[in-house]
Amino acid sequence: MKTLTLPPQAAQVGLAVDVAAFAMHESELQVLLVQRGTLPHAQVWALPGGFVQLHEELHEAALRELREETSISLEPRHLEQFYTFGAPERDPRGRIVSVAHLAVLPHGTVQVTGGSGTLAAGWFPAHTPPPLAFDHAQILERALRRLQTRLEYAQLALEFLPETFTLPELQEVHEAILAKKLDKRNFRKRLLAQGLLILSGERRNGVGRPAQLYRRSKTARRTTV
Amino acid sequence: MKTLTLPPQAAQVGLAVDVAAFAMHESELQVLLVQRGTLPHAQVWALPGGFVQLHEELHEAALRELREETSISLEPRHLEQFYTFGAPERDPRGRIVSVAHLAVLPHGTVQVTGGSGTLAAGWFPAHTPPPLAFDHAQILERALRRLQTRLEYAQLALEFLPETFTLPELQEVHEAILAKKLDKRNFRKRLLAQGLLILSGERRNGVGRPAQLYRRSKTARRTTV
DNA sequence: GCAAAAGTGTTGCGTGTACACCCATGC
DNA sequence: GCATGGGTGTACACGCAACACTTTTGC
């Protein structure tokens, strides 16, 4: 390992990343959790995360921990850092600061198993999670708020869905994230007015009247920050 | 110094805070910079900042560095963490991750001098700063964007002004942050409709017609974290 | 009385919201 | 033919942007 030349006043802190990874399952917004295999908080559920390596970008560390601890195969469709948690006593092992990330996993990310250091991995209702280790309940809460505000501007909801999807499915994603019902007509009007969706022409068979399929237009690029 | 029991895989990184502190001077949005006294980037201007101490909250570290390096006396009226910069090569001394903070200093924070480790401190136009050390130009840019989005919702602009102020003064703050002119009538209508301002009755003498003085209503709370 | 800055209203447009019925399909 | 979910339009409220003249003071 390379030796560093940090100034003497640099406190020795551990730098970690934690990831709140969301996906839609059964019309509900779910969050990916792992069951810790080691102390502290052994057997307690927690957000996947771990220590950043020396020459690793923060978002790379987040991706790596997500893969290592949950054995997911699909790449997240969205990944952003959203807050850094650094209260001195947040981790009993010492001073550990965590850069928290928000991830969106695409539809179909169902199978998860425990990975290195974890007993298990699984999906849980994002708005009503089980008891969580460390300050992860706070982290999750803030992740949800960020997800909600992101939804207003961007086309982030599309990242939860497969290539083609129906408008009722898209509305379900919005309703799951915002935790409230939306008006069908207003929702359609608003979404179609944005010009991000193009009609895919085909139809999908279900129980009632078949829904029209859409896909995201290639020009879905507007990240007006 | 207390010995920590960090897990072996915890990379040894330095944890720093940097502060983009803004104030209004001469109808312009200004940012507080310090001239570095040590390598690397000696004599180059930079955002005030430094290493977090072991048992210190992140925002406390930000406040401490601000005071130590710039000798300001007034407390910031707003302080929030807004992004964490962690590119592996952002600091030539080694892996140093910086939790960047946004601060608003009240009107009257004029005198600043260099402090420990800095040659000088001074105010610079926030939208057109001098060359900056490390990745501080990026940090400042993101701080400005955050300031602009904060302005929409909150009463953050009030933090730039003294106890009592006039509507033209408040409009100047908004215009300086957004870097664009606003319509006087629309601005007044919008701000007064929010109910955050109460008429202070007095008047202030100037060149033309005197302006009415306002103060913030009691329900407008401070936003320092 | 004139220069300089403060103050004041109306209109149009776009956006969001409330709200109820018909349509296409499987069984 | 009926149960199931998909699809459609209008009317009102609200917020935002555009726009020009009068008022109060100092000199």
From TrEMBL, chains A, B:
CDD domains: NUDIX_NadM_like. Residues 14-148 form the Nudix hydrolase domain. InterPro entries: NUDIX_hydrolase-like_dom_sf (IPR015797), NUDIX_hydrolase_dom (IPR000086), WH-like_DNA-bd_sf (IPR036388), WH_DNA-bd_sf (IPR036390), WHD_NrtR (IPR054105). PROSITE patterns: NUDIX (PS51462). It comes from Deinococcus peraridilitoris (strain DSM 19664 / LMG 22246 / CIP 109416 / KR-200). This is ADP-ribose pyrophosphatase. SUPFAM superfamilies: Nudix, Winged helix' DNA-binding domain.
